[in-house]
Amino acid sequence: WYQRRVRVVNAQTAGVGHLSANIQGAHTNPTVEVEEYAEGKFRGTYNAKESGDHDLFVYWSNEPVPGSPFLIHVEDSLPPSSMIKTTGGRMLQTDTVHRAGDSIELDVDTQDAGDGQLAAVAIGPKGDAVPVEIIANRNRTFTLKLLTSKGGRYLVNVYFNGSHIPNSPFKVRVCNPEAIWAEGPGLMDSFVGELGDFQVFTRDAGHGTLSVRVNGPKDKFRVDMWKGADRTVNCRYNPEVAGKYTINIKWEDEHVKGSPFSILVRKRPENGDS
User: Fold this and answer.
1) What is the tens place of the pLDDT at every residue in 80-120?
2) How does pLDDT run across 119-148, given as a tens digit for each residue?
3) 89: closest CA among 30, 38, 135?
4) N or C: which end of the chain has fewer CB within 10 A?
């Protein structure tokens, strides 16, 4: 990035003559355009294409003016994308776990960045590109919409003139309880003393927390849980009392497919009983 600089010279008391100037940098010598914008007053304009110290040589009728050369220090200028502001939207709620199917929005203000092109693309949980809708509002403000369809992490890259805007890429966490299922004998009718074993499959659920509660005749029962392969969770409980049991399986406090499960635990028939 370069800086466009302007310098003004007052030559009203110098008499008849002409003003000229040139600049020498460490690696480049920018051209200086000189114009007389009022009688005896001149404006010099140049584009500095590198940072660092530059020497500005100013001449009146080919003779150096007092003080010439002048030392000019040029600093790196910020790209226009750094002037972009994000003013609202659920995409800024970094601590929130969103639900698959939700539309996640981001409000963007480009007024201070000048002319340019706003663009956005998201990378989904499987590494695939996910389109981001850009809606133009008034006064060079925009609303970006990301429609999520899977659980996992999304990275939303937002660009202005090809450069990331501040805080881009934005991280969006999404959960999908509907992608979870459970199976096993512990979810079916059984007898007292039979361990209730079942598995919960969370591979495609995205971000979230699994909770399992078993309620029966003696209120809550202890549930042992341990991790299996490929994001599978093994669960076990011991129904010691006959009666009706309810098994609640939730992901991010929402029931998964089939939950709550209702089962009946009976006493095992004694010998000779039908």
Assistant:
1) 788 899 988 999 988 888 988 889 999 999 988 888 899 99
2) 999 999 888 899 999 999 988 999 999 999
3) 135
4) C
3-state secondary structure the chain: CCEEEEEEEECCCCCCCCEEEEEECCCCCCCCEEEEEECCEEEEEEEECCCEEEEEEEEECCEECCCCCEEEEECCCCCHHHHCEEEECHHHCCCCEEECCCEEEEEEECHHHCCCCEEEEEECCCCCEEEEEEEECCCCEEEEEEECCCCEEEEEEEEECCEECCCCCEEEEEECHHHCEEECHHHCCEECCCCEEEEEECCCCECCCEEEEEEECCEEECCEEEECHHHEEEEEECCCCCEEEEEEEEECCEECCCCCEEEEEECCCCCCCC
Both tokens assigned to 124: 């989904």
